[in-house]
Amino acid sequence: MKLPPRGGGAKAFPGMDRNVLQGRRIGLGVGGGIAAYKAAELLRALQRSGAQVRVAMTPAATEFVGPLTFQALSGHPVLTDILDASQEAAFGHIEFARWSELFVVAPATADLLARIVAGMGNDALAATLLAYRGRVLLAPAMNTAMWDNEATQRNLSVLAKDARYRFVGPGLGLLACGEVGSGRLSEPDRIVEAAAELLGEGPLAGTRVLVTAGPTREFLDPVRFISNPSTGKMGLAVARAARSRGAQVTVVLGPVGSVDRAGLEIVDVVSAEDMRDAVLARIDHTDVLVATAAVSDWRPAHRADQKVKKDAADADAPLALLRTPDVLALAAERVRGLARRPLVIGFAAETENVLENATAKLLRKGLDLIVANDVTRADAGFGTDTNAVVIVDRAGGRFELAGTKDEVAAGLWDRIAALRSTAALAVP
Q1: This prediction's pTM
Q2: Per the residue annotation, which of 177, 304, 355, 417 is the catalytic one?
Q3: What is the pLDDT of residue 343?
Q4: Contacting residues for 56 by C-beta, under 8 A, at least 6 apart
Q5: Is 353 an active-site residue?
C-alpha cells in the first residue's frame, strides 16, 4: 500500500489562517530536482504570508537554480557548502538550525529522503537538518517510478512514524519527464497552507501567554536613572519557547535595545509604573503569566526636569527614594478571585540564601511557580547566554535546570505544562 502519509496526498488545508506565519522563522531546504525552480515561488509565497525565510541547498540543487536567485529573494546568504569557511562564519549550519522554527524541504528528492533516514550530514542541507530539532515539512517531488520504488516507500514509512516529520504531496499530474502519475511537487500555495497548519499546532495552541522581560528605568533627571543589568535574554527565550509551542505571546519589555521581535507582540515600556499598567491591562485575558523582568524596586522621590549639576556644597546630599509598584504581586492579586485564574510564574534573582528567599517570595505573592537563580554565578544571571535555575512549586517540589537560556526556557514550559495538567486547567 502506497503512502503519501500524514499531511500528504489529497488532504487539503481549507480556510487555514496564514496569519500564523507572520514573523515566523522558516528554513527552506531545496533538494536537487527539476522542481527546484518552484522553490523560488514557494519562498515568495511564504514571504507574502509574513514569514522570514532563509535557504539551504544541496549541491545538486544549485545545478538547477543558482543560489543567487534565492539570496536576492530572501535577502540573506544561501547556505550551500559546509566546508566553506566564509559561509560557516556568516551563517553556519548549526546557527541555521537554531534559527529555524520550522523547516520546509521542497523539493524533497528520493536521494535526500534516503539521506535523512540514514542520518547523513554530507552536504549543507543534510547537515542542517541533522542539527535541527524542530518539525520538518517534506514536500516530495520525483519521477513516478522513483516514487513507487520500494526503497523510497520504505524511507517514507520510516519518516512517517516520526512525529517530527509531516508531508505535503506529492500530487498527480504531468511530470517534467513527460510521464503522468504521482511525484509532482505540490503547488507553493498548498505548501504554505501546510506550513501554516503545522505552526498553528502545538501543546500551547490557543493559549495566551504574557511575559515580562528586561529591566525598568527610574529616572533621577533626563540623563540619569536607577536600573539593573538585565538584558531580557531569559524572558525573550521564554517567549520564543512558548511561541514555538503554538501560544499567542505578548512580551512587556523593558529597555534592552534591538531584539528579534518575530512572531511576538512586544509592548515597550520604561518604568515600573509603565510595566504595571501594561500587565494589568492584559492579565484578565491571559492564561499564563511568566514574570522574568527585573523591575527596579526603588525610584527617586523627585525627578528633575533638567540635568542635576554637580555642586560641591551638595556632594553628600542623600537621595530620597520611594518604592515602585510590585508588578508581580499586583498581577497575582488581580487574578486571585477570577473563576478561571491564569497561572502566575515569577523569577527570583538572588545573591544569597537563594532557595529560601525565592520560596518566601513564592508564598508571599501567591505564585504557582518561582524560578530561582543565583546571579553571582558566572554561568547564570544577567547578560549571559546560559542559566542555571531551580524551579520551586507551592508544594515544596524542586526541579533543577541548566543549559542555554533557550534550553532552560523549554524545560520551564515542560514544568508549566505538567502543572496545568495537574490543575486541570482547560486550554481555550
Answers
A1: 0.64
A2: 177
A3: 94
A4: 27, 28, 29, 30, 78, 79, 80, 93, 96, 124, 125, 128
A5: no
